[in-house]
DNA sequence: CCTACCGATCGGTAGG
DNA sequence: CCTACCGATCGGTAGG
């Protein structure tokens, strides 16, 4: 008697299945897919079945790799901030001049925010969509990330009339919102970062 | 036999019911409730049953006043932009100097965006949450609104190195995102508007 | 404006 | 990783 290949009865196999059979690599694949979908459609707009479809499995099967949708989102969010913090630290490591450091940080964060094929995608916003129980955790984590910018802004020789706390909030919300209007092919993330730094440069 | 008062069996009556019995006023009440909830919880995060609860009725009963959730959101969105456009036009009407006009427009838009008790609330963002069929309509409507700012930015004596299109996008995303981090009691919307105008002032 | 319901979809699970 | 399902919730409707 013939034995059917598992999953061969699915209507189509557009999703990327696990080729190598390495479960760690498979998990990474799933996280990357989920990150992209969360970034594009938001937390509520992305169902586990959606993620499963892109991964080539049914939604329920994802729970072999993750504990819950909440936990998946938290892991992605924290991982994204870790990577972002590292890359920003690298970008400003060689620079001493406060404005240079700010510009380098803006460029680095934008390159992350605007890269459509990264596990490190913009999900630092839209906390309204996320369930209450994990919301505060995400906010606290982001606040720690933003302390990097607090330190950089404090070093700037700003005019006395500027409120540094407000200045920092404005700069960060600008960087975080960039993904909402950015369209690839026109300005590069670097160019945008430089323009932002130029606009925010006052002494 | 005694006759029960309608709705008296509901667990609680926290919701505001229609007191006067005026159906037009009742509809306005419902729109205002919906606007607040959409602004706070997003489109997907607000169910018709949620809105009904705050209005003191069941979700299904709202359909006597509106056609669909989509139509409700579109009406609120377009109405908000109408009011915002009017108030900005008023704010800049008396001013001639380009920087003064920009500052006045920023203040006016922020006062609208940051007012928590207004039918004119910030729902110009988060189009990811909205169903595909109405998304493009909302975007087109917002683009028309943003033309006001395009005109104002074109009048500014900016340095030649500045990209005016990028500059406008950055300014608008800053104004639109203000509701995400704003907390009442510290800076007023006017003060924030003035600081934004100061940061964006370069010649 | 309520009762009572529809079909669809959600996150998640037991068992294989 | 699938089958087959759970309870909950969604937008919306018919009829009163």
Characterise the protein shown here.
The structure is a homodimer of 203-residue chains. Chain A has 203 residues and is mainly alpha-helical. The first copy, chain A, has two domains: 1-66, Arc Repressor Mutant, subunit A; 83-199, Tetracycline Repressor, domain 2 (Orthogonal Bundle), CATH 1.10.357.10. Chain A is built from seven helices and no strands. Chain A has helices at residues 23-41, 48-55, 69-93, 98-113, 132-154, 164-181, 189-199. The radius of gyration of chain A is 20 Å and the shape is elongated. The interface between A and B is medium-sized, with 32 and 32 residues. Chain A binds a DNA duplex (16 and 16 nucleotides) through loops.
Number of strands of chain A: 0
Oligomer: homodimer
Order of helices and strands of chain A: HHHHHHH
Structural domain count of chain A: 2
Under the CATH scheme, which class of the largest domain in chain A?
Mainly Alpha
Structural class of chain A: mainly alpha
Helix share of residues of chain A? 55-70%
Low-confidence runs of chain A (pLDDT<50, min 5 residues)? 1-13
Average pLDDT confidence of chain A is 87
| Number of alpha- plus pi-helical segments of chain A | 7
Outline of chain A:
elongated
CATH superfamily of the largest domain in chain A: Tetracycline Repressor, domain 2
Beta-strand residue percentage of chain A? under 5%
The N- and C-terminal alpha carbons of chain A lie at a distance of 81 Å
Largest interface: A-B, 32 and 32 residues
Summarize the main sheet of chain A: none
Pick out its properties.
homodimer, mainly alpha, Arc Repressor Mutant, subunit A, Tetracycline Repressor, domain 2, 7 helices, disordered N terminus
